[in-house]
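re: ur msg from earlier - yeah i can do the adenosine-5'-triphosphate complex, just paste it... oh wait u already did. ok heres what im feeding in:
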Amino acid sequence: MPFEIIAGVVLAFMIFLFANGINALPLAAIGILAYVLQNYTDKSSSIIKNSPKSTDTGKAITFEDIGGQDTAKNELLEALDFIKDYDEISKMGIRPLKGILLTGAPGTGKTLLAKAASNYIDSAFISVSGSEFIELYAGVGAQRVRQLFKTAREVARKNSKKHCVIFIDEIEVIAGVRGKNSSHLEYDQTLNQLLVEMDGLSAKDDDVKILVIGATNRPDILDPAILRPGRFDRIVRVDLPDKDGRLEILKLHTKGKPLAEDVNLEQIAKETFGFSGAHLENLCNEAAILARRAGEKVIRQCHFMEAIDKVIMGEKLRRKPTKAEMRRIAVHECGHALISEFFKPNSVSTITITSRGQALGYMRQKQEEDIYLYTKNHLEAEIAIALAGAAAEEVIFGESSTGASGDIDHAVDLAKKIIFSGMSEMGIVDKDSIPLKELHQEISKVINAQKAKAKEIIEKHKDELNLVIDYLMENEKMDGETFRKMLKDLKNFKVA
Ligand code: ATP
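and the outut:
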């Protein structure tokens, strides 16, 4: 029953007693004390009782349901085999692991891996989040940690399992460096209790063997005590998937969906560099929604392509800029596209002047292969592409607009990459001690040189650019193939 109703009834009863000459104040004091104590106990155990995920057995997910992540899977499987074949490995004197830490960007499949791990060793599975441990009440977090391990054993026994996996998501909330948090005593006590519980785990003596799997996006802020051998002594990196990984994940999430014959998952995998598994799942879902919206029975490649834009930029907006603004947006985006195609032939995937999310229009690039190392040439070309929007506005209208501010931030980041990798004229520099004025001068030099280059190319192709701009004004969107075909027809366009 809600607290307000109970309080109202009690107050009315006390007034009634008081009107009849009975002093009910001592009775009320005892009632309040009992309520506070009850509330405290409830809070300390509520993490287990109330967590909807806590009794999830994780049965459904297996390693086959996880696309890519081969390195992470292999690392995890080896650690799990130590637990599964305990008798065998103990003959070799190998100590099974008590904790495994999964680190990586959001949505890369850390929770899925933990569930698959639990399934692999046929264990019970309990899932909590680091933030669920933290309360205003001192000592509640530590109490919840004790309760968590107790419940893990009880759940395993009840389900006749020999193991239990405790999965702690966002573990950095409780396992951040001690003494750093403002209400640090409560945080420190919670972490200390987790360390105590993990130290107390024994593969030999415990009837239920517990494996703690932690997950975090911020391994850099973890207290070193948590990473010392005997606690989380295996750290498994769960990276963003590469092209093959993305293809596998796309296959998993399109299984059972009605795909048209023109769907090319390999092409989609190529166009989604930087997407996590969660993004790809969302992409497949959005493609299906778009197909349904269009009244189609099957999902086509065009639905996937539009879904990519939607996942990156957000939903299309009803906002309609004026005709003059639309033309400026078209000039800006065509500028980006022209320079992109100039330095990186075949790189333009889509150009559009439809507003989505924060963007009034955009040009999306694709790349044949995932790139992890960047040369100076490559970074300079990217700066030229980033500033080509503003350069095109200057060439066509004589001045640029605020639409270029995001591009400038991006160009500055790229210029810093060149400078801090020792590839600028400054040579190798210490990024922490370089004077701000010198840094600013070098950034401007790198950026202005590339902007001038972009402007020169656009000047040279001004007439042709206007043709593409007209097409975009009429059609709002243009795919890379159409753009390239128009450029090919323009005889004097030469790529770098
Ligand atoms: P967070 O750090 O935000 O908690 P996470 O790394 O734990 O994220 P999950 O919760 O495991 O990510 O993944 C979210 C969803 O994304 C999954 O339910 C699944 O649909 C999809 N997904 C992520 N990675 C993969 C993958 N490798 N294979 C298949 N699906 C994936």
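cool cool. The beta strands are 99-103, 124-129, 163-169, 209-216, 232-237, 348-352, 362-365, 477-479. ping me if u need the other ligands too
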